[in-house]
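Entry type: protein chain
Record version: 2
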Amino acid sequence: MAPGGTADDGWQRLHPLSPLLRGGVVLLAVLGYVVSQLVDSVFQSFDPEQYIPGAGGEEPDGGWSITSHPLLALGALVFVIAVVGGVSWVSWRFSRFRVDGGQVELRSGVLFRQHRQVPLERVQAVETTRPILARLLGLSQVVVQSAGGSDSHLTLAFLAADRAEELRAHLLDLAGRSDERGAPQHAPGSMQSGAPGAIGTEPGSGVLPAGPVGAGHEEARPLVRVPNGRLFVATILHGSTIVLGILLVAAALTVGIAEAGLKVLAAAPAMVPVVFGLAASRVKELLVHGNFAIGRTATALRVRHGLTDLRNATVPLHRVQAVEVLQPLWWRPWGWWRVRVNVAGVHTGGDGDDTETVLLPVGTSAEAMTVLSALGAHPEDPVLLEALHGDGGEPGWTGPPESARWLDPWSWRRTGYALAAHSLYVRRGRWTRRAVVVPHARVQSLALHQGPLQSRLGLVSATVVSTPGPVDASVPHLDAVGAERFLDVVGERAREARRAVTPSGRDAAARAGEPLAPDPAPLVD
C-alpha cells in the first residue's frame, strides 16, 4: 500500500485543494476579462470625444459595461466562480487512485468515467512537478511515465508535497523490483567493464551502465548545480539572438544610428512576431532549466529543474540509450558544454522539446565530464577526449573521403566515428561540436541513406537508429565501401553485445570458457 491516507479497497483521494488548482486557470481567465473591462472603462473616461451633455456630441450607444452595472457584474462573477468551483469539486470527489495488484490505477469522471491502469513493469520513470500555484499551496503532482509514450502517462494532480515524494519513492521501489527480475544484476557502484553497456573502468571501454532502478528513497549524491546567472548568459548567447544583434549593428554602422533607429521603428510591426517568438523561446529556456541540479544514486540520476514549474525527475541509468555532448561556437570561449541523452520510454515533443532528456543545460568542461562519469565514462578516456576536442586525422577514427568537402566544406575533416570495446563514438560539426556515444548493446538498427548529390560523388550517410530522443548518431558522407563496412562491423558488434547480455548468451559463453564481451579488432583506416 502506498504511503498516505487510504479509502475503501485501497483507493485514495487527491488533496482537497486540487479543485482550486484545476479551476484556477478558468478563474484567472474570468478575472483577466473583468480587469480588462475595468481598464477600458477608465481609459474611455479620459476620451475628449466622448459624449458631453449639451455640447452637441452624439448620444452614447447604450452598450452594457461593467462600470455601468457593477452589481450585475459582481453577481455574474460570483456565479461563474461558483460554477467552476462546483464542477472542480465534483471532479475531485469522483477521482481516486491506488497502487495495488502490480499496477497504478486512476478513476475519474462523472458523466464520462475513465479507469486508467499502468502496470508497474511498464513504468519508465516517476517524477514530481510543482507549478507555481501548487508551490504556493505546498502541493505537487506525480507523473507516472510508462513505456507507451506521453499519451499513456498517468498524472496524479495534486498531492501534498511530502506525500507526493513518498509516493514517488514507493513507485520507484516497486518498479525497481520488477526491473530487477529482468535486468543484469550488479552490485551498487560496481565497475564491470566486461559487460556491454556496463560502467567502464578502462579508457575506451564505453559508457552507460546497466542495472535496476531500485532505491527510490535513496538520497542522491550531488553532482552539479548550474548557477542561474550562467544559464541566463548561455541562453542569451543563442544563434537567433546573435544574428538579430549582428543585423541591428550592421544597420547602425551602414546608415547611422539615428536613421537605423527610425527604420527599426518603421519595421517594428513586421518584426513583432519574430521578436516575440525569439523572446518566448529564450524565456522558456530559462523557466525550464532554471535552478538546475543533478545528483546520482547507485542506479539512477536525479534531476531537479524549473523556476515557475519545479520538476524532480529520475533517469534510470539502464534506460539511457545514447549520450550527446555539444558545444556551440559562442560557448567555446567559456568552455561550456551541454549533455543530452536518449532515454527509453521518454519521447520528445514534436517542437523539439527535450526538457526531459537534458542532463546538463550548460556546464564547464569539468562539470560535463562529471555527468559523463556518472554515466560510466572514464575522465581520461582518449577516445572520448578526441571525440570532444579532436579536429580530424587521429588514429582509430574513420571519416569521409576528401570528396565530401563539396557537401560539407567546413567540418568534413572532423566528422567520423571510432569503435571502442563496448561503444561506438561519433563526432560531427566544427562550429557546433558534437560527440555521441552509443553502446553496442543499445544499437536498435542501422540504416544507409544516399541523396542525388551524394550518388554523383559516391558518398553514403550511415545512421545508428536509437530510441526516440534528441541524440542523432549519424555519420554523413562516407564512401560507399566504408559505409558498407560500417554497417557490417557495427551490426556484428551489436549482435555480439546483445548475445552477451542475454541469459542464453551468458550460459553459452560460460560453457565455452570464452569472455562474455568479445572485442573484435578495432576498425582503423
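Comment: Residues 1-7, 54-59, 178-215, 505-525 have pLDDT under 50 and may be disordered.
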